[in-house]
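Example 3.2
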Amino acid sequence: MTNRSLWSNVDLDYLKINYAKMPSKELSKNLKRTWDAIKHKASRLGLIKEFSEGHKRKISEAHKGKKCTGETKKKISKTMRNHFISNETKKKISTAMKGKYLGDKHPAWRGGVTRQHGYIYVYSPNHPFKNGNWYVAEHRLIVEKRLGRYLKPKEVIHHKNGVKDDNRDENLRLFESNGVHLSYELSRGKL
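Structure, written as tokens:
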């Protein structure tokens, strides 16, 4: 290979036409440039190298069931730097993955109950006031069941004995707003 720095218009046209479909070695030989030089120029031109279906199958079969080491991941990342997933493929992946890891299908599923800041949260994907992770505070669900309606977002639940995870119905008191709850706490000398 010769070390040339300037690309002629003929070379650039040849690269644009053949980059996606021609094997790397052949492209390198025909342009009389190193593969790194070709990849660099293609990247600057926004060209995408697509694998043939046969090549994709070979890669898939060779890696089936294998775990990647850190070094292997680096090699794959370097190899794939100029290879992009088409929008059609992204849509197929998205459709295949929809709902696959939601709720009890997720590998980290622990029964739909979690704790945050001392409070117990329950997985409730259909609740209108669920948080971003689809959970609702258990004490809110208990009071909603007692009242027969959803609580308004401004309504606050107070734990009478101060224990955040004691969600017995007799231990829960409803306040219409945080301001009313704060007034109650101040009148009792708790804050």
